[in-house]
Every structure is written in structure tokens, then in C-alpha cells.
Amino acid sequence: MNGDGLTVRDLRVTFDGFTAVDGVDLDILPGDLRFLIGPNGAGKTTVVDAVTGLVKATGSVRFGGEEMLGRPVHRIARNGIGRTFQTATVFEELTVLQNLDIAAGAGRSALTMLRRRRDVPEPVVRALETTGLTGLRDRPAGVLAHGQKQWLEIGMLLVQDVRLLLLDEPVAGMSHDEREATGELLRRIGEDRTVVVIEHDMDFMRSFARSVTVLHAGKVLKQGTVAEVQADARVQEVYLGRATEPEPAGGPEPAAVPATVAEEA
Ligand SMILES: Nc1ncnc2c1ncn2[C@@H]1O[C@H](COP(=O)(O)OP(=O)(O)OP(=O)(O)O)[C@@H](O)[C@H]1O
């Protein structure tokens, strides 16, 4: 296993007296591809917000042997933790290459980065190859397909040498082919980095997760392999309980977890 692991202990986040994250423990081994699943409002995004310093939290978040909690956002990022949001945040007017260059370009002048470059830095070349965007490097990011924008955003983390990637619903709104390509991309990235994926898409989770954490009402309900999580009675209950609730766009089939368990039983 490569990369750095993430160890979270007794993580708690409250918003005006409401406890959104209620004593979460996570052990994510180096090189893991961990899926964080759970019903709407379970606290998934808030856990990632706490790990990346966007919300105040108590407890402990250790990465690469160091405590992250209490550090400002930019220092956590400098320690090799990067994230994407549900909506891709690329510079639409700039080319793919310029987006990657800017992400990689701490210390270089804006003019240098915006100039069409003959010698593309090695990390940018690697990120273009890894994300499959080499052929699109001179296109404005704004014309990319939805999936390609997500891949560019992941590429922007790769050029920053992020060792822990936290991805918030990376395949939401993607076509079937884009989902498959994204799963393969996560596998490639996971060869030398640790990846955590928040996801509602249960088919995607089943295909690509190495391990799974199920959150419910701010707590860890179950942690284990896909098979272990699917076989857990409490997990089935939580998903059956939401079978009548509306799903977000691109979300899973209601009761997707128990349906599979039933097939296997
Ligand atoms: N800034 C905030 N202020 C107040 N409450 C918040 C804030 N952010 C999140 N919450 C609440 O905390 C709970 C957990 O939200 P969170 O977004 O982490 O859930 P989630 O599991 O990511 O849900 P989803 O799958 O819908 O994105 C929800 O009840 C939400 O309304």
C-alpha cells in the first residue's frame, strides 16, 4: 500500500447546537479507495469539511503522522490533502493546460502560466495522461463535457501532489461510460495515493470501492468491505427506511443496498 493513511478519532461538528457529526472514527489505510455512503444529511460532506478545515470540529484528524485539526485550510492543503466539490470549480475561460498549470504553479508568475508553453512541466504531463485529457489540453475548460471537467479537477489535485484526495460525488450527473472511466481513473490514482469518495451511486460503489464506511445521523453505522456492509442488518434498515424518500438527481435506486443483499441471500 502506498500514500498516507488518515486516522480520525471522535470527530464532532455542531451547527448552532445541532450535532451533524457525532463522534466519528475512521481508519483509512494508505492506498485505500474508501467510499463514504449514507442517506442525505448523514454528515458525509461535513466530515470532509472538517478534515479539510472548512468547518470547526473537535476530536483528532491525523494524516501523515501529523494532527490536522485546528490548522487553517491552506496548511492542511499544503500537507497533501485535497478535495473536490459536488460542482466542478475549473476556470472555464482557460485551457485545460492553463488550469493544470495554475494549480501546479505556486511560485510562477501569472504571465508565465498563461503563456502557451513549449515545455510542459512533468507533473502536468503526468496529470494529463492519468486523466486522459492530453488530447484536449488546448481546449477551453468551459467546452469540456461534464465528466471531463470532473477529471480536470482531479488532475488539478494531482499536479499539487495531493496524497489524500477527498471527492464529493464525483460521478453525479455522469453518463454510464463516464462513470466507468471515472472508476478506472480512481483506481489509477489509488495506486500511489489514498482516495475517499462520497457517493450516492451504489452500483459505482459496488464496482470500485476497496472499503466502505456507512454514516447515519452523524455516526458510523458500519465500516468494512462492500460485502460486509451490504450484509449488515442495520445498513439495510437505514436504506429501506429511505426507500420512499426522493433521491437526488443521479442518485441510487431506492433500497439499492438491500436489493443486492436479497439477491445474494
Ligand atoms: N453550515 C451548516 N449549517 C447548519 N447545518 C448544516 C450545515 N452544513 C450541514 N448542515 C447539516 O448537517 C447535516 C449533515 O449535512 P451533510 O451535508 O454533511 O450531509 P451529507 O451526508 O453530506 O448529505 P448529502 O448526501 O445530502 O450531501 C444535515 O442535517 C445538514 O442540514
UniProtKB/TrEMBL annotation:
Residues 243-265 are annotated as: Disordered. Keywords: ATP-binding, Nucleotide-binding, Transport. InterPro entries: AAA+_ATPase (IPR003593), ABC_AA/LPS_Transport (IPR051120), ABC_transporter-like_ATP-bd (IPR003439), ABC_transptr_urea_ATP-bd_UrtD (IPR017781), BCA_ABC_TP_C (IPR032823), P-loop_NTPase (IPR027417). GO terms for molecular function: ATP binding. Residues 6-242 form the ABC transporter domain. SUPFAM superfamilies: P-loop containing nucleoside triphosphate hydrolases. PROSITE patterns: ABC_TRANSPORTER_2. Residues 246-265 have a biased composition (Low complexity). It holds the Pfam family BCA_ABC_TP_C. NCBIfam families: urea_trans_UrtD. PANTHER family: CONSERVED COMPONENT OF ABC TRANSPORTER FOR NATURAL AMINO ACIDS-RELATED, HIGH-AFFINITY BRANCHED-CHAIN AMINO ACID TRANSPORT ATP-BINDING PROTEIN. This is Urea ABC transporter ATP-binding protein UrtD.
